[in-house]
Q: What sequence folds into this?
RNA sequence: GGUGAGGUGGAUGAGUGGCUGAAAUCAGCAGUUUGCUAAACUGCCGUAGGGGUUAAACUCUACCGCGGGUUCGAAUCCCGCCCUCACCGCCA
């Protein structure tokens, strides 16, 4: 959620930046500012009357203790009058406050100045790329065929047990998943991230905190009996660890990593994009999250990009890094880099990570603050990224490293996987 | 799921209708003392929103799990919800 002060100080700039995100209703900014002004007027008026009521109540207490009942009764009449005068003001104040809050929730985060304009994924900027596309042998096939041939993943079985989008990993397929999770967690903890195993279901407050609600309500699985959401990413439980926490400046940065399954309804997607491992309802992901000093967040974002890039290099996969344009970014992000890996048999790029700086958008909602040197409380900046999402990595590993003899496993995974070939 | 107890500031914990935004202790911060460390002493030490100020000072309001209610007045009484702990039941 944007801070009101930001809107108040620079309404013009806010509108300009919202336009880059293709926000359709810039007048909302003026409306919020206007309502806030009204809110403050009402608040002042309400507080003044309330102060009078409080003073009178105190006097009544004094009169009563002295046994001056008539005096007390007179003051009671005053209080009654003040209260009935204040009542409509209170109602109006509450209504305006609620309205401001609700409107504020509807504003997306402001894009950083680095964000390129644009509406579609085609307008994302390629920052750099690495690795090289492999030359596949003549019998090369997509990963879903490889999964069947080597008995690694059973999509039909998942269909039977649960439904489409819930594959069953089996034998070496399951082992490779576990190897990747371990490798990623080790890689992240070596870089100073503390490992967590958070709950896989979260309450409403947590889902609001990171911004999944109200924006992506329909994307999450919901357990209505207990009013809990299945997490769409570890970002939700992990960032909420620090909800309502006042940090000390020296405790920053907070670096956390977690492996969790992720659950997404992916309502409304079908077709070839969802074939095999390309898009699932349940998948595994290792996430990294940082809470940092506002002055450091863009530096840290670059660090996280390099961190993820190096994992991809270590896996010997061809990748490219994209800076997302305004139209392709998420609601809550100020700047996002997507990582895509080349899936050689499908001949297409697959997104395997997304790293974002949310600035104070999430911390404002979650009240994650720190005390600066002057003793003032400030919101931290939150950042997170996938390091990494498993299914598409697995798809690329299978496709890119297939040869006449089987599937080669990257060196860094040998000790985790227990062998060099499938 | 049942029964009982309880949720107060960073922590412990007092507080059953007005003088309590909240005792006391500990931790923390600043200072005095001290050869150093330790100890002792003094002061400060919640959050948010208004007003005010160049900035402060100052001042008002709200907050003692959350939401309602009673009352001139609620941390304190009443109702609902949530959570924690203990015991029982069930169970990986």
A:
């Amino acid at each position: 959620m944007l801070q009101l002060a930001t809107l108040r100080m620079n309404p013009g700039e806010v509108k300009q930046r919202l336009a880059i995100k293709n926000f359709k209703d810039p007048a909302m900014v003026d409306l919020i500012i206007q309502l806030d002004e009204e809110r403050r007027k009402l608040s002042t008026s309400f507080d003044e009357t309330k102060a009078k009521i409080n003073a009178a109540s105190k006097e009544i207490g004094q009169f009563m203790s002295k046994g001056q009942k008539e005096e007390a009764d007179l003051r009671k009449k005053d209080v009654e009058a003040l209260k009935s005068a204040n009542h409509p003001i209170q109602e109006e104040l509450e209504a305006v406050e609620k309205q401001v809050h609700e409107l504020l929730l509807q504003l997306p985060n402001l894009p950083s100045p680095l964000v390129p304009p644009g509406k579609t994924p085609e307008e994302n900027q390629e920052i750099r790329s690495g690795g090289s596309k492999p030359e596949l042998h003549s019998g090369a096939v997509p990963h879903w065929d490889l999964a069947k041939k080597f008995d690694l993943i059973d999509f039909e079985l998942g269909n039977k047990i649960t439904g489409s989008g819930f594959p069953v990993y089996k034998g070496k397929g399951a082992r490779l998943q576990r190897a990747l999770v371990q490798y990623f967690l080790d890689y992240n903890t070596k870089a100073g991230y503390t490992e967590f195993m958070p709950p896989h279901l979260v309450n409403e407050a947590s889902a609001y905190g990171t911004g999944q609600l109200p924006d992506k309500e329909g994307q999450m699985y919901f357990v209505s009996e207990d009013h809990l959401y299945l997490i769409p990413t570890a970002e939700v439980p992990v960032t909420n660890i620090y909800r309502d926490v006042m940090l000390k400046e020296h405790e920053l940065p907070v670096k956390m990593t977690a492996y969790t399954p992720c659950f997404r309804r992916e309502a409304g997607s079908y077709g070839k994009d969802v074939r095999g491992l390309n898009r699932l309802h349940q998948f595994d992901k290792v996430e990294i999250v940082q809470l940092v000093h506002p002055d450091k967040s863009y530096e840290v974002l670059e660090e996280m990009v390099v961190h993820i890039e190096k994992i991809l290099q270590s896996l010997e996969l061809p990748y490219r890094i994209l800076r997302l344009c305004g139209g392709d970014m998420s609601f809550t992000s100020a700047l996002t880099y997507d990582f895509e890996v080349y899936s050689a048999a499908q001949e297409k790029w697959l997104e395997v990570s997304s790293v974002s700086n949310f600035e104070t958008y999430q911390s404002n909602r979650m009240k994650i603050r720190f005390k600066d040197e002057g003793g003032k409380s400030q919101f931290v900046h939150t950042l997170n990224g996938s390091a990494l999402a498993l299914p598409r990595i697995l798809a690329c590993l299978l496709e890119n490293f297939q040869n006449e003899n089987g599937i080669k496993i990257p060196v860094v995974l040998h000790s985790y996987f227990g062998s060099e070939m499938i």
